[in-house]
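Hi there,

I know you've been waiting on this one. I reran it after we fixed the sequence typo, so this is the corrected version. Both the input and the resulting structure follow.
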Amino acid sequence: MRKTRSGGWKSLGGILLCITGSEAMFADLGHFSQLSIKIAFTFMVYPALILAYMGQAAYISQHHECVNPIGYFLSVPETVRWPVIGVAIVASVVASQAMITGTFSIINQCLALGYFPRVKVVHTSDKIHGRVYIPEINWILMTLCLAVTFGLRDVKHMGNASGLAVITVMLVTTIFMSLVIILCWHKSFLLALCFLIFFGLIESLYFSASLVKFIDGAWVPLVLSFILMTIMYAWHYGTLVKYESDLQNKVSLRWLVNLGPSLGLVRVPGIGLIYTELVTGIPPILSHFVTNFSALHQILVLVCIKSVPVPYVPAKERYLIGRVGPKEFGLYRCIIRYGYRDARKDNEDFEDRLIRNLGDFICSEQRNCYSISESSEEEMAVMGTPILSGNATIDIDRSCDSVKSLDSATVSNIMSPTIQDVTEPIFPCQAWWRQVQSVLLSSPVSDPVLIKELQKLLEAKENGTTYILGHSNVKARKGSSFIKKIVLDIAYNFLRKNCRGSSVALCVPHAALIEVGMVYSV
């Protein structure tokens, strides 16, 4: 640097390309374990890279006149040159495939956390949850690759774009790693600061050298990043204000109780699943439905599907079920929690699983000798596993809309077993009901009211299930800022109309779907 000064500093952008590329291995974390990638990199990839760079350096030191950009292939003997070129092409295909699969995994996690519009996610493996395929993203990547190739038409410009993208990722990773040292590893602030200064200064030097080549192709990753960030921000902001509007306009339980057991409507046989984002209170869609329709299903379930910021949610903690209002109302709430890496398969028998868990919840009320509806609406039970010594109850705080677990009291051993004690994880409803009858009728503490309620649940299932979703339209209210109108009225509504609908994302059959129009002025 002392001799070359600015020329040597600018050359760091090209030197950066010599230390990049091998990080594509780590994009395969969804397909291979961390240990296998570490072993492959340490004993195969790293030695191969060192030998290749040493060979190139030796060849250039003996042939100073070689300034060809494909000098590496000139250093290969002619007898094996074409096989080496073939291996290089195959290696580039493998590396690009690793980056594509890594993109699928990142988009899938952003989708689960609500930071990306709904797209189709296909799980290609029954055993490994990280193997996903997203058709829309695959086509977008192909289009972008062709556009960048035909647009730049220069390998040097493509290298500048790649170098800036890679060094930006390294710099951002270093910044977040310093936060991990403090928040996750609970190390001292001084250690995190030393880590940030040491690696940050080195990467900042390479970043500044790459940024100088902004006009020569380095602008491409920044423009693409800005477009992607705008899409993610518009979708997340629109989703957030819609949720906040539902939260502010939710109906109180007293309003529901004042309507009476029939809710002021004709209760028809069947089960109605009302999808909502709220975990407490009565969602506005139900009040809108009651106001505009003259009939309602015999059993109503407020279904709330939540993606929690953890990789996986155990099956035994997935279903949270509670009762809303008195028993004669026939109104329940079911919160289904998924991690951002949990597989949601289309062929999962969701209705049967939900009915079995509702039956377990009804049995748990009898078993624990209390009615959840008598305490409060916030009391919910964790369903999904055999309940041998009591089930956990969930207390949902209204102010923060969060969920926390509480330990239940010890249950007496003389109580009858629940449905899950005698059934497998998946049973058809008819077999499920036969198991219920055989257990409850043989129990010395069987309750006719309990049997009648379970039979009512099964009869409602046999009469059919209807899915009720809100067809929302979000608009910025009058007097809002110009940016807010652009984000909500144009960007968010465009993404909502051109991406997968709620019914498709939730795998709702169209023959049993009812959409309730909702207009949000925020």
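Quick highlight: The first strand starts at residue 122 and ends at 123.

Best,
R. S.
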